[in-house]
């Protein structure tokens, strides 16, 4: 039940890596952080405003200890208390605290907008990237994992940025301004504090390297779990039909255990950061108090002066404690960002040449084409075909012989490994993909409807179509019979889950009927439709295919007897080619396939 990426045994949780892992994780984390900064830099005005407000609030907050120290010195001796000086100082303190609070409030508003705009930009890039990625990339990854990256991971990044901005901007300014104020009071004690600072950094870096790796594993595990849940819920009927409820739950239990292991390890390592840095900072604080006490005894420092230095020492160390307290969210955000950027930076489809394919006449040439999904497993080899305009080509053969693969190559969903495919003598690699696909109308066995009205779904390929044109196409496709019974007719809102498979397929056929492209591809287009409606649709297709080059993939060979050419494929190679009567008379593989579908029916009756 698992997607391509998710197949295989569930990996158990792994212990933290060694020193090499830490350095690689640290480098990866820094590289990811730089990419996030590039995205943030697109909102320079907000960034500058946030930094300036952070600086203003910090300067005001750090000037308060000086005022408190002065107030203490005003009352340091009995009978010599300067009450007017104390009152004036307290008033100034109140003004600074109020102004600093207002600056912090505005800064938080700006940081919110900055974080949301940054995430909006990253998510927009991710969606645009998905539209430009080759189908081979999307086919090799589960849908749930990609959805996890675009939705959940960007939300986690947003939460981490909101916390990170507030702590980072204010913290950096606090450290710099505090050092300046401390140097102005006592150079010796300030140098001692500065020299001890790297100890906190080293402790935080040591722990962060391990926690980042665990958060990255946690995100990947969560992506696999999301993909599995998506598959199980989307195919619950099949799970219950085959009695696989217990097995599905057991697989999910393994994934849950794996995620729990990574989550606990990540939170454990990240939770060590705050108490570890606080322990180091408390030692620094104690050293400042001890050195300051000796300076007071020697008369080089006043009581108010040591109060100011202790307050600054605490303010200086506070950013390290604040940042370490949100390290879990920050590491989580960076791990999520790494997954998002891996999607955004994935190799795109080869660029289109700036040349449009005009409306095609329908001549298709396939010359010595080779293709395989996996390089060491050959599929289509040295395939050649000439299709004249207006020809109806049927493609038949056993499952896995390459029928749908050929369609993917015609539409350039995949590029050939070698050889060329041309339309009207022009190689399809020499024109834009959009202009090529605009010349094809395609109805697949796998149907898809977007959440929207019936009108929106039918006019998906031709948004400007009138209601009259839509209704005419619906009548030709025999979908109008059920559309007119809907509550709002064309304005009825439908989704991929609100209609039967047959109704969805009829709407997809109507979509092609409306566009009237010069070439058609029908891949088991009537597989989910009842026999009576199928006969009507086949009649409509017959009219639609008149004068149009058509490729029809069929499993029911009775539906392709009127084709101009029938290609019989096996193991990626065309082994027989001709009309129905010619292939029957030849007595080869096609005859065997054809009569195998009419077991118990006489040959004359079948013919």
Going across the biggest sheet, name each strand in turn: 6-9-10-3-11-12
Strand content: 5-15%
At the first level of CATH, the class of the domain at 25-344 is Mainly Alpha
Task: Summarize model confidence as the mean pLDDT.
Answer: 75
Number of helices: 21
Helix content: 55-70%
Number of E-state strands: 12
Which fold name corresponds to the CATH topology of the domain at 25-344?
ABC transporter transmembrane region fold
CATH architecture descriptor of the domain at 25-344:
Up-down Bundle
Identify the CATH homologous superfamily of the domain at 25-344: ABC transporter type 1, transmembrane domain
Class of secondary structure makeup = alpha/beta
Rg (C-alpha, Å):
35 Å
Separation of the first and last Cα atoms: 41 Å
Rough shape?
elongated
Poorly predicted spans:
1-24, 600-607
* Largest β sheet strand count, sense and barrel closure: 6 strands, mixed
Overall description:
The protein has 607 residues and is an alpha/beta fold. It has a domain at 25-344: ABC transporter type 1, transmembrane domain (ABC transporter transmembrane region fold, Up-down Bundle). The chain has 21 helices and 12 strands. The longest helix has 50 residues, at 83-132. The two termini are 41 Å apart.
Q: What is the gist of this entry?
A:
The chain has 607 residues and is α/β, with parallel strands linked by helices. Helices cover 63% and strands 10% of the residues. β4 and β5 (426-427) form a beta hairpin.
Topology:
Layout: H1 19-40, H2 44-74, H3 83-132, H4 135-139, H5 143-185, H6 187-234, H7 236-241, H8 245-271, H9 273-297, H10 303-325, H11 327-344, E1 364-371, E2 380-387, E3 392-396, H12 403-410, E4 418-423, E5 426-427, H13 433-438, E6 440-443, E7 452-453, H14 454-458, H15 467-476, H16 480-483, E8 493-494, H17 501-515, E9 519-523, H18 531-545, E10 549-553, E11 565-570, E12 573-578, H19 580-586, H20 589-596, H21 603-606
Parallel strand pairs: 3-10, 3-11, 6-9, 9-10
Antiparallel strand pairs: 1-2, 1-4, 4-5, 7-8, 11-12
């Amino acid at each position: 039940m698992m997607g391509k990426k998710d197949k295989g045994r569930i990996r158990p949780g792994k212990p933290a890596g060694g020193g090499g892992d830490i350095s690689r994780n640290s480098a990866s984390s820094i590289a990811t952080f730089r990419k996030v900064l590039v995205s943030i830099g697109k909102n320079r005005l907000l960034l500058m405003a946030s930094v300036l407000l952070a600086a203003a609030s910090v300067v005001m907050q750090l000037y308060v200890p000086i005022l408190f120290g002065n107030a203490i010195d005003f009352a340091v001796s009995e009978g010599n208390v300067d009450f007017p000086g104390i009152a004036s100082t307290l008033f100034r303190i109140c003004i600074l605290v109020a102004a600093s609070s207002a600056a912090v409030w505005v800064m938080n508003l700006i940081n919110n907008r900055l974080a949301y705009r940054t995430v909006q930009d990253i998510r927009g890039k991710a969606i645009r990237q998905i539209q430009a990625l080759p189908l081979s990339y999307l086919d090799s990854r589960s849908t749930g994992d990609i959805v996890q990256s675009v939705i959940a991971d960007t939300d986690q990044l947003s939460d981490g940025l909101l916390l990170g901005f507030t702590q980072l901007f204010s913290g950096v300014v606090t450290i710099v301004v505090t050092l300046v104020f401390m140097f102005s009071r006592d150079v010796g004690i300030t140098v001692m504090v500065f020299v001890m600072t790297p100890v906190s950094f080293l402790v935080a870096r040591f722990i962060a390297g391990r926690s980042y790796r665990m958060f990255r594993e946690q995100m990947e595990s969560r992506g696999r779990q999301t993909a599995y849940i998506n598959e199980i819920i989307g195919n619950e009927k099949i799970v219950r039909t085959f009695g696989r409820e217990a097995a599905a739950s057991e697989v999910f239990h393994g994934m849950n255990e794996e995620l729990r292991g990574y989550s606990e390890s990540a939170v454990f390592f990240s939770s060590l950061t705050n108490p570890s840095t606080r322990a180091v900072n408390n030692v620094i604080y104690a050293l400042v108090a001890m050195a300051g006490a000796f300076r007071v005894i020697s008369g080089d420092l006043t009581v108010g002066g040591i109060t100011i230095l202790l307050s600054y020492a605490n303010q200086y160390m506070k950013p390290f404690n604040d940042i370490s307290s949100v390290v879990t969210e920050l590491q989580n955000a960076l791990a999520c960002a790494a997954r998002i950027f891996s999607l955004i930076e994935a190799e795109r489809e080869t660029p289109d040449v700036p040349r449009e394919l005009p409306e095609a006449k329908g001549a298709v040439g396939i010359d010595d084409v080779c293709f395989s999904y996996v390089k060491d497993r050959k599929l289509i080899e040295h395939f050649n075909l000439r299709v004249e305009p207006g020809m109806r080509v049927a493609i038949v053969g056993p499952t896995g012989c390459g029928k749908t693969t050929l369609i993917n190559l015609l539409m350039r969903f995949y590029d050939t490994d070698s050889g060329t495919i041309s339309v009207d003598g022009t190689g399809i690699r020499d024109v834009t993909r959009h202009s090529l696909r605009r010349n094809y109308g395609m109805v697949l066995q796998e149907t898809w409807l977007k959440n929207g009205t019936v009108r929106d779904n039918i006019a998906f390929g031709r948004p400007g179509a009138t209601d009259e044109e839509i209704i005419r196409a619906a009548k030709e496709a025999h979908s109008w019979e059920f559309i007119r019974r809907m509550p709002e007719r064309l304005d009825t809102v439908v989704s991929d889950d609100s209609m039967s498979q047959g109704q969805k397929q009829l709407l997809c056929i109507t979509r092609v009927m409306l566009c009237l492209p010069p070439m058609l591809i029908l891949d088991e287009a009537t597989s989910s439709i009842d026999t009576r409606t199928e006969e009507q649709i086949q009649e409509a297709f017959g009219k639609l295919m008149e004068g149009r080059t058509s490729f029809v993939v069929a499993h029911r060979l009775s539906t392709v007897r009127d084709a101009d050419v029938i290609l019989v494929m096996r193991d990626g190679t065309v082994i027989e080619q001709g009309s129905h009567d010619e292939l029957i008379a030849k007595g080869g593989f096609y005859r065997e396939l054809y009569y195998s579908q009419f077991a118990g029916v006489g040959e004359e009756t079948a013919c």
